[in-house]
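Lecture 7 notes: from sequence to structure.

We start with a single chain of 135 residues. Read the sequence below before looking at the structure.
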Amino acid sequence: MTGAGAESNDFSLAGLQLCAWLLLAAMTTAGWWFFSLFFAKGILVGGVLANLSFLLLKRDLQGILAGPFQAVKVRFFIKYYLRLAALAVVLFALVRFRAVPVAGLLVGLSTILLSIAIMVVPAARRIFIISKEAA
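Now the structure, written as tokens:
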């Protein structure tokens, strides 16, 4: 296998999910340690919602890419918007009834974004270094 093939495996969805769950555990622990158990609860709830939503989206996208595109496209979008609406209702209820702190919830919801950044920045740096060496 060439170097380019090995580099394409650096950013996998399984690695991203593992990073997101580990980051969620670290952020929840830090929230409890530095703030309060209530704040940590907000981080945990937000992170679980974000990670589960990402997991379901990944599963649906793998299904759409495995079969005939036109046949499942409409069903994919219906499921996507229903899941988004359900997530909005859950988030509204959590904020409306003050079940979790909003700041903690936002920190938890950012776990997927932060995991992507954690995984992409080193890969981009390697690509940049390789391109400079090639020039």
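The radius of gyration is 18 Å. Keep this in mind for problem set 3.
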